[in-house]
Each structure stands twice: as C-alpha cells, then as structure tokens.
Prior knowledge:
By secondary structure, the chain is of the alpha/beta class. The chain has helices spanning 2-54, 65-74, 86-89, 94-106, 139-146, 170-176, 199-206, 219-233, 240-244, 258-261, 265-273, 286-291, 293-303, 351-372; strands spanning 76-77, 83-84, 123-124, 129-133, 152-154, 179-180, 185-189, 211-216, 245-247, 252-253, 281-285, 315-318, 323-326. Helix content is 46%, strand content 12%.
Amino acid sequence: MWHVSCVVSSCSGVRLMGCSKWRAAFNFGHLRVQSKLSVFLAMLILFTYLFYCLNGYCDSLPRPVYDQQSNIQHRITVDDGHELSAQQLGAYNASQVVREQLSDLSNRDAPPNNISIANNFGSKKFPQAIIIGVKKGGTRALLEFLRIHPDVRAVGSEPHFFDRFYDKGLGWYRNLMPRTLEGQITMEKTPSYFITKEAPRRVFSMSRHTKLIVVVRDPVTRAVSDYTQTLSKSPGLPSFQNLAFRNATTGLIDTSWSAVRIGIYAKHLENWLRYFPLSRLLFVSGERLVTDPAGEMGRVQDFLGLKRVVTDKHFYFNQTKGFPCLKKPEGSSRPRCLGKSKGRPHPQIPSDVLHRLRHFYRPFNLKFYQMTGHNFGWD
Length: 379
C-alpha cells in the first residue's frame, strides 16, 4: 500500500510539475503576443502621423503653449503692416497677450481663413486722444512723429466721423480704429473737427475723458498756406487778396472764407470749452514743431501719459523742405519725410495785405492767449 501511494504521489507530483511548466509557457507566450500587438499599434500610429504630416495636415494641429508664446513675443503683425519686436512690446509678456486675444476672439466672429491670427491681437477701441485741429497747422507732422512711439496706434487717414460721417454710427467709427494692446493709446486726427460746431458735443457723447490736441500756427501764415494748397489743386483760383477782402478799398476782411475763418482760434475754442475743461486740451505750437520738434513732442507725450520715447535723436532738419524729418528707421534705406504736398513755397502776397490781415487777427490772438494761458508770439 505504501509503495502504491508513493507511486501515485510521485505521479501526481510529476503531473503538477508538468502543469506548472505548461502554465508558465502559456503565460510567457501570451505576454509575447501582447508585446507584439503593442509594437504593431505604435508603428501604425507613427506611420499614420507621418502620412498626415507629409500631406500637410500637421500645420492645423495645435502647437504647444510655450511655442505660441515664443512666436508671439517675436512676431506680432500690426494693422499698418509693421511688426513689433520683443523690445517694442516692453512690459507686455506673451501670456497677457494670449489671454487678451482669447478674450477678444470669444466675443467676435471667427476671422476668415485667409487672415493670419497674428493680425488680430488686441482689440479695437474708441480713440483716447484725437488731434482735432487745425488745418495747415502741422497735424500730419505731429501724427507721424507720434507713430514712432510703440505705445501709440493711430489711423493713417482722416476718418471725418464727427463732422461728415456721424450718421454711420459709433460702431462704424470704432471699426476704423487699429487694434491695441493693454497700455497702448488709440488715436486719430481730423483737423476740421476744431471748427465744426457739432463736433464737441459728439466727441463728448462718445467719451468725456477724450484727450484733445490742437496744433496751432500764426493765423496769417496758416491762411497763406491754406490758399497755397488750394491753388495747387485749382490753378485758376482768384488772388489771395481778392478772396481775403470783401472790399479792398475799405479793407473789410471776408470771414466767410474758410482760410480766414479757421484762424479765429478763440471763437472755435469757446465751442469746445462748453463741453471739455481746459485740462483736457493741449495746444501744440506749429512753429515750435518745426524749430524744436523734440521739445514739443516731449510736451505731447507727457500730456498723453506716455514715456518720453520720441526725442531729438529721431529728427534731423531737411534744408530743402524747411522742416524736420525723421531719421532713417532701422531696416529702411532712406529717412522719412512728409510728402511733396508739405513744404510748398508760398506765393508772394503784398505786404500791405498781410499787414491788414495781421491787424484783423490781433484781438482774437490776444483772447486766445488769455484762454489758453500761453503766448504763442504771433504779434
């Protein structure tokens, strides 16, 4: 009996050992199959990815956030076609820009597919500052000088919203503005606002906090410059003296002629002071903008609450044109001067005509000096 049980036990032991070996082999084979299947799936995913990339589909895949931020810091295209460098962005880090853009896009329709998202950073706002006058005073020069500043974004052309296109609505007006980032100022210039009766009320309705800049110039010189511009477009224009006087014998000035009417600054300023305090207006000397552009630009930047970035290193005096030009910008082959329409030679006006006109303006000039608290020295 003992012998038999031993044999059975031995057989059972052998059987158990065989089963264990079989099970181990089975498990090992199962693991090998799983491993091969994993490799196969990984290879399939890799080949699928390569196929899509080779066919150009990878461009539509989202990039990592750090890559987007790096790209934003080095390339943000602005509305006028220029690109802001990392230095020009100053204190605006990439994460702030991303948050602003995502917030802006969430409130807007998606841009067309052919527009780069780099053009859509920031938001369109109503202008915080407007150059409201005066015609032939130096407004274009001032705007071009201001556009050097990285924190100023301005409309290139004159919108004429508050005098000609007010019926189009504030939405239309805001859509004309360039996109700005936090800390940047939106600006526009339309010199005819200063003499438009309805303009002060309309600007005030948009925002009572709007800063207003008026570039003024000796009204006699300004009138001659105005006439010169009109004469270049209409060569058959009557002489300056025929337009300036209602009666040449009595010397009565024709204030209905716009070239004369614009120069009565005190009258136009009264209209603006009904809505805006004097502290909201800055009066820029058109003469000093020529003789000392850096000094006058310092005043403008202070008024706008900007750091004094535009300094004398940006200007040189162009002897041919007779006014300052901007030095050659980085990456440009030539300096930037105002167009041919600026700095035209004035026609010869009889001295007695100029004397009569100066006499006419004197009381208005004195009142203007008193209202602004600044003597411009035109008399």
